[in-house]
UniProtKB/TrEMBL annotation:
Cross-referenced SMART domains: FGF
Similarity comment text for this entry: Belongs to the heparin-binding growth factors family.
PROSITE patterns, per database record: HBGF_FGF (PS00247)
Protein name (Swiss-Prot/TrEMBL): Fibroblast growth factor
One Pfam family matching this protein: FGF
GO MF assignments: growth factor activity
Organism: Solea senegalensis
C-alpha cells in the first residue's frame, strides 16, 4: 500500500518522493510490486509483471505442530475434528503451513485435506474449503515457540493438557496452551 502525504495541496506518494530523490526532474512511475517468501528468503520484485499469485507459492515442508502444553501434536481428522495426538506415526498430525501474506498462514491437514479454522465461538475445526476463518497470524515468540492467532476473531489456537482444543475466548498471551513448536514431519508420508 502506498501511503500518500499532502504537500502544498498535492498528494505525493512515498514512491514519488523516492523517485524524485533518485532521478530529480523526471516524473515518477509508481511501480507494481510483490513480495514472496520461500526457503528463508524474502524477495521484493518490481515491474509490470510483478503480482502476488498465491496459487503458485510453494507451501512449507510438511510439519507437525508440537504443543508445549502436554506434549501433543495438533491433529486435524478427516471428519473435521481438531485435537492433540501423541502417536509418532499418525498421518493426521502432518500439516502443511502456507504463507499467504507477511505473518499470515493457512494450516492444512495433509491426510484430512481440511484447513484449520476457528468459528465465531472460538472452537477449532477442520474446514473442507478455505474461508476467512482459516487465516492465522503466525508469531515467533521469545521462548522460540510459535503462536497462531485467528486473523478474524483475534483468539489463539490452543490445546489443553489433555489434548482437547481450548476455546478461543479462554486463551490469552503467555498461556502455555498457545505455544507450538513446528517440527519436520519425517518418515510419516
Amino acid at each position: 500500500m502506498i501511503v500518500k502525504h499532502k504537500k502544498k495541496g498535492l498528494m505525493i506518494s512515498k514512491w514519488d518522493k523516492l523517485y524524485a530523490f533518485i532521478a530529480p526532474g523526471k516524473q515518477a512511475v509508481t511501480p507494481n510490486c510483490a513480495m514472496t517468501e520461500g526457503d528463508g528468503v524474502t524477495v521484493l520484485t518490481f515491474g509490470p509483471a510483478a503480482s502476488l499469485d498465491l496459487s503458485r507459492q510453494e507451501p512449507r515442508t510438511l510439519t507437525r505442530l508440537y504443543s508445549q502444553n502436554g506434549g501433543y501434536h495438533l491433529r486435524i481428522s478427516a471428519d473435521g475434528s481438531v485435537s492433540g495426538g501423541r502417536q509418532e506415526d499418525d498421518p493426521y498430525e502432518i500439516l502443511r503451513l502456507k504463507a499467504v501474506s507477511v505473518g499470515v498462514v493457512v494450516i492444512k491437514g495433509e491426510k484430512a485435506g481440511r484447513y484449520l479454522a476457528m468459528n465465531n465461538n472460538g472452537h477449532l475445526y477442520g474446514s473442507p474449503a478455505l474461508t476467512d476463518e482459516c487465516f492465522f497470524l503466525e508469531r515467533y515468540e521469545e521462548n522460540h515457540y510459535n503462536t497462531y492467532r485467528s486473523q478474524k476473531y483475534d483468539w489463539h489456537v490452543a490445546l489443553k493438557r489433555d489434548g482437547r482444543p481450548k476455546a478461543g475466548p479462554d486463551t490469552s498471551q503467555g498461556q502455555k496452551a498457545i505455544f507450538f513448536l513446528p517440527r519436520p514431519a519425517t518418515g510419516n508420508m
